[in-house]
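One such given next:
>
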Amino acid sequence: MQECGAGLVRVREDGSRLAFAAPPLRRGGPVDEADVRQVADALGIERADVIGAQWADNGPGWIALLLRSADAVLAIEPRGFGELDKVGVVGPHAAGGPADVEVRAFYPGSPGEDPVTGSLNAAIGQWLIGSGLATDSYVAAQGTRLGRRGRVHVERVDDDVWVGGDTVVGVSGTVAL
């Protein structure tokens, strides 16, 4: 178990990687049209580019948009988010691509984009798998535009969506309190 803002989250070993069970959504369901238009404008895309929008709030408050392709996701050049909080975008790669889907996570401030985001991938997995828009097991690429090669493994097992991946230690050390 891991205790975090979403409460107690189950963790398991999944081969050589760790995975966590997606916590229940605090807010799910469709995003109202005015908010979809505002998010599309902030991302510098047309409203017609968005083929689906859902609240994907499992704690951080994500709004998730589904675009037609991974290329469309990778082409996004955000304009600024104003009052918006956290926005996630997902789009499918073509068959034989580097992953099944491409994900990007945007938030206010600097640097403004997260290279790999467990909470967003968990909520997107619940949405896509639960609605039949994705298979019960897929791999999401994230961090591509940031020069990273993040891979998130998402899988439904019984009633749970599990999210896992390999990690890289960026900083290590000790702190004396």
Notes: The CA atoms of residues 69 and 86 lie 21 Å apart. The chain has one domain: 24-165. The first strand starts at residue 2 and ends at 4. Residues 118-130 form the longest helix (13 residues).
